[in-house]
Structure formats: C-alpha cells, structure tokens
C-alpha cells in the first residue's frame, strides 16, 4: 500500500508543480494555480498517510518513487521519451527506496 500512496503522491506533486510551471514559464492563465495548490495539498496529505515512524525516512523513500514518476510524466505528458540512462537511474532509485522501506528495523 505504501508504494501506491507514493505513486499517487508523486503524481499529485508533479501535477501541482507543473501547474505553477505552466503559469509561470508557459504563460498560462493564473487559473492554473488553483488546481495546482489543491494538488500540492493532496500530495502533503498523502505522504502523511504512510505508515513509517519517521517523516524523514518516509520522504527519503518517496524520493525514489518521485524520480520514476517524473520520468513517466516526461514521457506521457511532455512527449519526451526517457533514454536508457534515465531508466537505469530510475531503477537505481527504486531499489534505494525499497531498501529504505523494507529494511528490518530494530533487528
């Protein structure tokens, strides 16, 4: 369930940040900011749902999932296909996030 929460949180964060990017860099309407702010609030709420005792650890593990989701956004929304180096780096990040999430604590 944690991975699912992280994936949805990553999409919410990327969508929220992209709305600000679109307003600022692509000169879209300021109305783009409203759904972006809602999306960023959803992102924060979702991260708070993760069942990990330390916020820093939850955020660190989330980072790996965020990287993979960002490359998905790059491909699906921006139309730029990730190259093999993007995919290799993303795979390393997923492995790192999994080590943080699945490590036996207190053993």
From TrEMBL:
Keyword Cell membrane part of the UniProt annotation: yes
Membrane topology label: Multi-pass membrane protein
Locate the transmembrane regions by residue number.
5-24, 30-50, 57-75, 87-104
Q: Which InterPro entries match?
A: EmrE-like, UPF0060
Tell me where it resides. Cell membrane
A GO term from the CC aspect:
plasma membrane
The family database entries (HAMAP family) matched by this protein are listed as: UPF0060
By its UniProt entry, which NCBIfam families does this protein fall under? PRK02237.1
**Name under which the protein is recorded:** Small multidrug resistance family-3 protein
Q: Which organism is it from?
A: Mesorhizobium muleiense
């Amino acid at each position: 369930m944690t991975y699912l929460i992280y994936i949805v949180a990553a999409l919410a964060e990327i969508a929220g940040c992209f709305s600000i990017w679109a307003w600022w860099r692509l000169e879209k309407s300021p109305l783009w900011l409203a759904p972006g702010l809602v999306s960023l609030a959803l992102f924060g709420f979702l991260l708070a749902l993760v069942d990990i005792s330390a916020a820093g650890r939850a955020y660190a593990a989330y980072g790996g999932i965020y990287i993979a989701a960002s490359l998905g956004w790059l491909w699906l929304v921006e139309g730029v296909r990730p190259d093999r180096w993007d995919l290799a780096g993303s795979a390393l990040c997923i492995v790192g996030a999994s080590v943080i999430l699945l490590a036996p604590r207190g053993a």
